[in-house]
Design a protein that fits this description.
Largest sheet: 3 strands, antiparallel
Number of domains: 1
Helix content: 25-40%
Radius of gyration: 13 Å
Structural class: alpha+beta
């Protein structure tokens, strides 16, 4: 276990995040044990910092996605 992520639980966590946030691609890197999400697919001109989020844990990623979704809704993305 690293950063609160049980190795066998990664696939289940990714599936849960994908179900909760269908417009996002969910990635877990095994070398750094980091969680990443990318909104998309987006047109190249719409790819910016607001389209990605990273965190140490699945719960941190969940919070980050929610924060960006609120910002995107406010900004009309």
């Amino acid at each position: 276990m690293r950063n609160g992520t049980v190795v066998g639980d990664v696939d289940a966590q990714k599936a849960a995040l994908r179900e909760e946030f269908p417009g996002w691609s969910i990635i877990h890197t095994t070398d750094t044990d980091r969680w990443w999400a990318m909104r998309g697919p987006l047109a190249p001109e719409d790819m910016d910092k607001a389209a990605t989020v990273d965190a140490d844990t699945p719960d941190g990623l969940r919070s980050g996605i929610r924060a960006l979704d609120v910002t995107a809704a406010r900004d009309g993305l």
